[in-house]
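Example 264, ligand S-adenosyl-L-homocysteine.
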Amino acid sequence: MSSESKTVNPSHPLAQRLRIVLVGTQHPGNMGSAARAMKTMGLIRLVLVAPEKAPNAESYALAAGADDVLGEARTCETLAEAVADCRLVLGCTARSRRVQLEELMPRDAAARSVAQAAGGSEVALVFGRERTGLTNDELQLCHASVHIPANPDYSSLNLAAAVQVLSYELRLALLQAGSDGAEPAGSDDPRDLPASHEQMEGFFAQLAETLDAIDFHKGRAPDSAMRKLRRLYLRAGLDAREVRILRGILADTQRMAMLAGSKR
Ligand code: SAH
């Protein structure tokens, strides 16, 4: 962060834990406009997932004074990589999807994000492509979706405009949380925090293997059951200890399934 941004546009300390993730952005200008939208609200961490084109002169022109936010943006190949260390991941959607995630209003999403950040968690707000939004697979990585309650007949905002609305709500929630100068509080023990995206994905991979090992699906496609199970466990907000217990149960289940298989 430049010294100018510290004096003119001070960020709340918790802003360090809030990241805006843009997936597959198609128009380079939108990355600049999104950076500007963020910086006006004191947000500083931008992550670009596989943008169609790298930020270019048009991006920087539209970023205006937020070229520091754009310049420091991290680029990742996948959404999973961008949110691996996040303990809350919210996907912003212009319309309801089949995935049927819990759907939050922007204000509630911001309140939840700031509360989690205050507890020591990294938080991501994820935005999709201009033409097609987020895929169902990408939404499945999220704990909940966020919908700006726009005109139902014309509900799709420009990408950077959507980032502006969510950034503003985050700003309000941060201001309400108060103590602009305070350092973020955090648990001393990361096991007390909600499990990270990476820990949850490790659990889901083992769950899928275990269900196969006990022939749970009986020839049916596993996708529908896995989608429902993902939703259930993501909604539960497990901490790292709880994930360890569940993985222990799965490991024993896998072991017993193998023993049963070898006896047959
Ligand atoms: N045609 C796309 C719209 C993409 S707009 C679709 O139907 O999904 C680009 C991105 O801006 C979206 O992926 C979403 O992250 C965000 N966005 C646009 N309008 C929104 C709204 N009303 N609520 C929440 N996010 C929105």
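Summary: DSSP finds eleven helices and seven strands in the chain.
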